Amino acid sequence: MTSAPLAGIRILEVGVMLAGPYATMMLADLGAEVIKIEPPGGEISRQVSDSYFASLNRNKQSVLLDLRSPEGRARLGEMVADSHALLVNMKPSAIRRLGLTYDALKQFNERIVCVAMTGFGLNGGDDPAFDYVIQAATGVAAMTGDPDGPPTLPGYSSADNSTGLTAALGLLAQIVSGRGGQVDVSLQDVMLSQLNYRAAAYLNDGVRPQRHPYGAHSYYVPAQLFPTADGYLALFVTHDAFWAAFAAEAGIDGFPTMAERAARRDEVLAVVSAALSADTATHWEARLRPLGIPAAAVRTLPEALEATPHAVVTAGDFRLVGSPIRIDGYEPVYRPAPALDEHAGASAQSS
After folding, report:
1. Which domain holds residue 261?
2. Element at 134 (helix H, strand E)
3. Residue 119 gets which letter from DSSP?
4. Given this model, what pLDDT does residue 351 score?
5. Which of 29, 54, 154, 168 has the smallest number of CB atoms closer than 10 Å to its CB?
6. Exposed, middle or buried by CB within 10 Å (0-12, 13-18, 19+), for 111?
7. pLDDT at 346
8. Nearest C-alpha neighbor of 344 from the set 129, 7, 72, 28
9. Keywords assigned by UniProt (predicted)?
10. How crowded is residue 344: how many other Cβ atoms within 10 Å of its Cβ?
């Protein structure tokens, strides 16, 4: 077994709820020493549920600091002196008021990397910016759902999770550069960035996103959910070779080119829907997967977890989804989320 990829990297987190804690947990899983700085009473997500907190804070240490007090800020400065990075997700005014910017902390360590995760940027104001609000504000909700139905939100916190991963990337990039500095990552910018080809189509060609039934793709046909004899099947045919293999298995003639399938979308979807209605979603998956055709039966989360037991790990008393990053020769050790201020003594010794 090789050493952890981020062994020797020390990261301080002043994280709240999901986005910040998720970012640092991903880094902790890769071997970084992550010290979670919590206020008196603990980080607010401890009040949600034990499993919620465990799912975002494994492999970390916990130190209680009152950053509103001179003693707490002095202790923070001592910890910054021996750390590579500080990641915080709060309102811009709170970040500045508590002295959690590079300008405030460089006196202790010129090479400290300070990552601020906010709704609209460090200079973007304090408007509330929870995940669902950002999905609504950036066009994600308007693009999601049935054409005749209301805007729809995904069933998980896509903005928070995406921003967490982006912030972790920015943090590591600045550490690798060898320079300290401020890294500014906003939920708004991250979600707009993830609309890449949709945004480009509008900015360059004036094409406004449209919703299609069953979440159909705007370019590829057929690429959407289809009802079957039992359950729904996701089918994603992106090129002509996929179509040829699928059509042969499903007994469909015609529409050999991507351009023709796009131009005759309604006809293609009609024949595909009729063919898929003859068998169940799980049977279609079993038939199409060996042919190399991208297809999957729609599963519930419990069904998906049962189908992928390798993704589930144990950290203390909790079963959780483990790190999605697989590195040859390295296997993460999953330690439970810390008790509040559990590592105060150890942190003091390391400083």
Report:
1. 232-297
2. helix 131-137
3. S
4. 45
5. 154
6. middle
7. 58
8. 72
9. Transferase
10. 15
pTM: 0.93
Q: How far apart are CA 64 and CA 75, in angstroms?
A: 10
Section 30-41 average pLDDT: 97
Query: What is the rounded CA–CA span in Å between residue 218 and residue 210?
Result: 8
Asked if residue 54 and residue 108 are part of one domain, the reply reads yes
CB within 8 Å of 194: residues ≥ 6 apart: 162
**Are residues 94 and 15 both part of a single domain?**
yes
Domain CATH number, residue 73:
3.40.50.10540
> Is the Cβ–Cβ distance between 57 and 51 less than 8 Å?
no
Radius of gyration, alpha carbons of the chain: 24
Q: Kindly state the DSSP code that residue 129 receives in the 8-state scheme.
A: -
Using an 8 Å Cβ cutoff, are 55 and 334 in contact? Answer: no
- 301-329: pLDDT as tens digits: 999 999 999 999 999 999 999 999 999 99
User: 250 and 120: one domain?
Assistant: no
